[in-house]
Amino acid sequence: MIKITFRDIEGNDKIVTSSIGETLMEVAVKNDIAEIEAECGGACSCATCHVYIDKDWLDKVPIASEMEEDMLDFAFDVKSNSRLSCQIKITKELDGLVVKTPESQF
């Protein structure tokens, strides 16, 4: 199992496990990460699964597609490390990944 840490705006960590092949959004929903709303269910047609990839992990996460970058325009408080969690597939290289959830999805 792959370990993922979700860190909220106050710095509280929730460490969860994931199977290879799941999306980060699926992992968040399955583990009741309240800040991840995932309204479109992973279709990359909203921005309610927005997260910040910890800077130490940016080079291990595949780059965003053009479609994902377009959808990030609708996210709240976008930063250089912003990603849509529905677009990140869990691989063995992501074991230990740390992501931060935004204050709001709107």
Short description:
With 106 residues, the chain is of the alpha+beta class. The protein has helices at residues 24-30, 66-72; strands at 2-7, 13-18, 50-53, 82-84, 97-100.
Structure, explained:
- The protein has a 5-stranded mixed β-sheet.
- Helix content is 13%, strand content 22%.
- It contains 2 helices and 5 strands, in the order ββαβαββ.
- The chain has helices at residues 24-30, 66-72; strands at residues 2-7, 13-18, 50-53, 82-84, 97-100.
- It has one domain: Ubiquitin-like (UB roll).
- The protein has 106 residues and is α+β, with helices and mostly antiparallel strands.
- It is globular, with a radius of gyration of 12 Å.
List the helices and strands and how they pair.
Elements: E1 2-7, E2 13-18, H1 24-30, E3 50-53, H2 66-72, E4 82-84, E5 97-100
Parallel strand pairs: 1-5
Antiparallel strand pairs: 1-2, 3-4, 3-5
From the spread of the alpha carbons, the general shape counts as globular
Second-tier CATH architecture: Roll
Strand order, largest beta sheet: 2-1-5-3-4
Rounded to the nearest angstrom, the distance between the terminal CA atoms is 32 Å
Query: What is the total domain count?
Result: 1
Number of helices: 2
- What summary fits the major beta sheet? 5 strands, mixed
Helix content: 10-25%
Low-confidence stretches: none
- Give me the CATH fold name: Ubiquitin-like (UB roll)
Beta-strand percentage range:
15-25%
How many β-strand runs? 5
Element-level helix/strand string: EEHEHEE
| CATH class descriptor | Alpha Beta
- Average pLDDT: 96
The CATH homologous superfamily corresponds to Beta-grasp domain
- Which structural class should the secondary elements be placed in? alpha+beta
What integer value in Å does the Rg equal? 12 Å
